[in-house]
Design brief:
This protein is an all-alpha fold. The chain is built from 19 helices and no strands. The radius of gyration is 21 Å and the shape is globular.
């Protein structure tokens, strides 16, 4: 691992440690303050809605300076500190919107730096491992900081803000400069991406919608299987899978780099379809074993690697921003799973999610077929990566 990549991995661990320590206890805090179910649902809907702006921030970063856009993330630390002084659910929701906005702003820029590595699949493997480490550390520490130190939530949000700010500073220290995109196109959705890129986004949308819908409902079954234990729920739902993700992500990254991100996306569609069916039908003890298998990090690596393959470097932040926008759109629509469960029952609603993940295999397979039809000739001198893909 190069020195710069090591620096970015450490910064990512800090970033996701801060984000997890801020996010994990939001629902318990709002619940303790007497917040409504609407307020509790908005804690997920607001970040997803503001995540739709990622394509705008990625476009802005490509056309100006990625490092400059990244530095705006320091303001996120200020908003995190203000959360310590919030007294009511509406105040918390407003500040969550602020944190979510700055998260949407910096995320495409952070992802871009890993895409610039000589072997992006391997680099995204380290990135996914850093995410897992951050969630494992931050999620575990947040409860300890609230219950074991005199500062309570003030200590949690101070710690989160410190991690967030240090992460941005560490990224900024070695973030590479780039030549701004001088394309005459002026709108965020008008980057010259090939038609196959939109096929990729369709696969990502269907896959994430099925995952967020299905696993959101399956998490209730998990809670029931664990007898309502919040301690075990936190360990099984987050801590153990995140810890295993740290160990498996480098292997996943090398594997994706070896077989290619397009076959990986097809495999992910099949894997999640099968996994959701198993989690629905198998007995409780088997569900616990399947739940802790780290799949999310493979999804992150595969999707980001394929976005890198399908986009030119000059539009990379915008491409990754569009991916994040599509993911947040799918997350925002996952409430349909709750409506389906209320109307038809939980298990039939999960089967609907299984169908969605299965449907994602169709556009993913089209991407794989497109790869097999690509010409083997090398691009002509002066031909950009985007132009090369467009001709395939």
């Amino acid at each position: 691992m190069s020195e710069s990549l090591r620096s970015y991995v450490i910064a990512s661990v800090l970033y996701y440690t801060g984000y997890a320590s801020y996010y994990v206890l939001l629902k318990p805090r709002v619940y303790d303050l007497g917040g409504s179910y609407l307020a509790l649902l908005l804690l997920d809907s607001i970040p997803a809605g503001l995540g739709l702006t990622s394509v705008l921030w990625g476009w802005w970063a490509d056309r100006t300076s990625r490092k400059h856009v990244l530095r705006w993330g320091f303001l996120g630390s200020v908003v995190l500190l203000l959360l310590a002084f919030a007294k009511t659910p509406p105040q918390i929701l407003v500040l969550v919107a602020g944190v979510s906005l700055f998260h949407a702003l910096v995320l495409p820029v952070i992802s871009t730096v890993f895409s610039l590595a000589e072997k992006p699949g391997v680099a995204f493997g380290y990135y996914a491992g850093a995410q897992g480490a951050g969630w494992a550390i931050g999620g575990g520490l947040s409860g300890i900081l609230v219950e074991r130190i005199p500062w309570g939530y003030t200590g949690v949000y101070t710690f989160a803000a410190l991690c967030f700010g240090l992460a941005i500073a560490l990224f900024s220290r070695t973030y590479p400069e780039h030549a701004p995109d001088q394309s005459p196109r002026t709108l965020p959705f008008q980057a010259p991406f090939p038609a196959i890129f939109w096929t990729f986004l369709t696969a990502v949308f269907l896959l994430y919608l099925g995952i967020m819908w299905g696993y959101g409902l399956l998490s209730i079954r998990l809670y029931e299987v664990l007898g309502g234990s919040k301690t075990w729920y936190g360990l099984i739902w987050a801590t153990i899978p995140a810890g295993l993700a740290v160990l498996t992500s480098p292997f996943y990254g090398r594997w994706v780099q070896h077989i290619g991100p397009r076959p990986t996306l097809v495999f992910l569609g099949v894997l999640y379809t099968t996994n959701m069916l198993a989690l629905t039908l198998l007995p409780g003890w088997a569900m616990l074993l399947l739940w802790v298998i780290p799949l999310w990090n493979l999804l992150v690596i595969g999707v980001n690697s394929l976005a890198t393959e399908l986009s030119g470097e000059e539009h990379r932040s915008q491409a990754l921003g569009m991916v994040n926008t599509i993911i947040n759109l799918a997350t925002g629509l996952a409430f349909l799973g709750g409506l389906g469960a209320d109307r038809f029952g939980r298990t039939p609603a999960i089967y609907m999610a299984v169908l969605l993940t299965a449907f994602s295999i169709i556009p993913a397979f089209a991407l794989l077929q497109n790869l097999r039809k690509r010409p083997t000739s090398k691009p002509r001198p002066g031909q950009s990566r985007s132009q090369e893909i467009e001709m395939s």
